[in-house]
Input
Amino acid sequence: MRLSELQHKDIVDLDGNKIGNIIDVVIDRDGKIIYFVLEEKKGMFRFGKDLETKVSWDKIEKIGEDVILVKM
Output
């Protein structure tokens, strides 16, 4: 699977809440994914700033056709 394919999937927690979208990935020297960097949606209390969230590979529960399910 390519990163470009993963970027089109919604990142969703176990409660069904959308967390964000993948904007980057961090890999180790062996080419294994350490974590995804997500761009969260803008919220009314964030004063227009986008925030980044890191989701480590071990938090990924399932990669489906449309979503990536994560345990937060």
About this structure: The chain has one helix and six strands. The radius of gyration is 12 Å.
